[in-house]
Every structure is written in structure tokens, then in C-alpha cells.
Amino acid sequence: MFRALTPIVKNLLLITVGMHVIASFFLPQLSGLFALYYIESKNFMPFQFVTYMFMHADFWHLFSNMFGLFIFGPLLEQFLGPKKLLILWMVCGVGSGVLYSGYVAYNMGQLNDRIEAFSEDPDPEEFNRFVSAYSHYFNPVIYDFIDDYSRDADNPELVDRAKRSMLGVRDVQANIPMVGASGALFGVLIAFGMLFPNTQLFLLFPPMPIRAKYLVLFYGLYTVYNIFVSNPTDNVAHFAHLSGLLIGAVLVTFWKKDRQSFY
User: Fold this and answer.
1) Please, are residues 19 and 30 in contact by the beta-carbon 8 Å criterion?
2) Which pLDDT score, from 0 to 100, does residue 209 have?
3) What is the 8-class DSSP label of residue 211?
4) Which residues pair with 210 in a beta bridge?
5) What's CA 261's distance to the chain center, in Å?
6) In angstroms, rounded to a whole number, what is the distance separating the alpha carbons of residues 250 and 95?
7) Strand bridging mode 200-203 / 208-211
8) Cβ atoms within 10 A of the Cβ of 29, count?
9) CA 166 to mean position of chain CA atoms
10) Taking every annotated instance into account, which residue ranges of this chain make up the domain Peptidase S54 rhomboid (predicted)?
11) What are 111-167's pLDDT values in tens digits?
């Protein structure tokens, strides 16, 4: 099986799996150090735009990304050449991390504006709406506090507790790490779909054949859907996936203009 692996795909698999083993069993602190954080987080370091790609949350997260690279990577490397496959993987991975960080910064700006507006004009109804929007961060006893606050809206202690609760949510949001090579993998997927659109693939779930272009289209639409639905309990960075698709599409479009540049 491994004889079918091309050099760049093989090395990416070895490095990524190796990093997961080291972080899981020998140096667990690497998981926090190498994950990508919000740029204003105390945990953020610029090198994380690269290192986050080689960290994964668990075995199945690692397996899904590496299985995709194993399936689609070798043919792309044979067609594009080792250098361009590596460029595709790294640019889509780093680029999706950068764009995702911009997306997080925008959301954090919205959250900060909401907290600032509440601080200037505290209102129990606004706090209730805030708790509803971020309910997954709160213990159910918060609703008892909301009842107390609603009955005594001018109580400075209750107002201060509400502010501190909102700031606590902001701190949690600012320190959620992102890990995984999904952005890079989605770049590989879009490249495969654009270069080999009519290649028949066979899905495992459900067991059925599908052309590469339709599989990529499904992933793209599913990703966009999840961004707009924005389930607060969903810990998948769908915007990073979409970013990988877009960056990969731009790269392949640029490369297809001059087939002689492949190597």
C-alpha cells in the first residue's frame, strides 16, 4: 500500500502523524503551544499559522485528514509535481489559518461591541439575550440570576456580576485553539476536483459512486451551509475549510493558465 505513496505525500503523512504521537504521548504541552489562537490572545504566537496544521484534536480528526491526503494526494503530486503539491498544501493550510483568524477577529469585535454597549447601558433584557446567544457557556443556574437581575435592574452588584459573566465568555472565546490540516486538505480536494472533475470515486458512506466534481461541490455547499447556520456547539472551523477551498481554487486556476509550469 505504501509503495503507491509519492514523496511529498509520504513525508507529510509521516511528519503529521509523528507530531500527533509526540504531542499525545511525550510532549502534551506542544498541543497548546502549536495550536492557532486568536491574534489578541495571550497564547498567540505567529509561528502557529504553520504549526497548527500538524496538530490534531484526536485520532479520528487526524485519520480523516490524513486519509484524504492519502487518497487524493499521490495523483495530484504525479500531475502537478512534488514542489507544487507542497506549495498547494502549505499555502492552503497557512492561508486558511490567516483567513480564519480574520473571521475570528471580526466575531470578537462584534462580541466586544456588544459587551461595551451593555457596560454603557446595562439592561437585564440585553443580558438575557446574550445568555441565550452563548447558552453553551453558562450553567443553568444563570437563569436564576437573570430573574434576580430583572427584578432589581439597578443593583450595582448584580450589574457587575452580569458584566463579569460577559467578560468571562469573551475570555473563553478568545482562547479557543484551532488545530488540524483540514484547510490544507480542502485545498487538495478542490484541486483534485478541478483537475480531474470526471474521475469516478466510490464513497464508503453511503456506498455509491460519485464524480470528483460533485463530491467537491457537496463539500463546498455543506461548508457554506454550516457557516451560515453557525451552531454555537459545533467545534468545527467551517470557515477555515471554505478558505482552503477558495485558496486552492485560485492556485489551480493560476497554474492551469500555463501547463508548462508544472514540475
Assistant:
1) yes
2) 84
3) E
4) 201
5) 31
6) 12
7) antiparallel
8) 8
9) 24
10) 47-106, 173-253
11) 999 999 999 999 999 999 999 989 889 999 999 999 999 999 999 999 999 999 999
Closest to 200 in 3D by CA, of 185, 214, 181 = 214
In whole angstroms, what is the distance from residue 174 CA to residue 112 CA? 11
Separation CA 98–CA 49 (nearest Å): 7
Pinpoint the residues of the chain covered by CATH 1.20.1540.10: 2-105+178-261
Cβ neighbourhood burial of 260 (10 Å; 0-12, 13-18, 19+): exposed
Residue 113, beta-bridge partner list: none
**CA-CA distance, 77 to 4, in Å (whole number)?**
11
Fold annotation for 2-105+178-261: Rhomboid-like fold (1.20.1540)
pLDDT tens-place string over residues 76-103: 999 999 999 999 999 999 999 999 999 9
pLDDT in tens, 152-206: 999 999 999 999 999 999 999 999 999 999 999 999 999 999 999 988 887 766 7
Task: Please list, in sequence order, all residues whose beta carbon lies within 8 angstroms of the beta carbon of residue 165, skipping any fewer than 6 positions away.
Answer: 127, 131, 138, 142
Cis peptide before 206 (omega within 30 of 0): yes
54 by DSSP, 3-state: which? Answer: helix
- The single-letter code of the amino acid at 23 is A
Q: 2: pLDDT confidence band, cut at 50, 70 and 90?
A: very low
pTM metric for this prediction = 0.90
| Averaged pLDDT of the chain | 90
3-class SS at 74?
A: helix
Cell of 182: 483540514
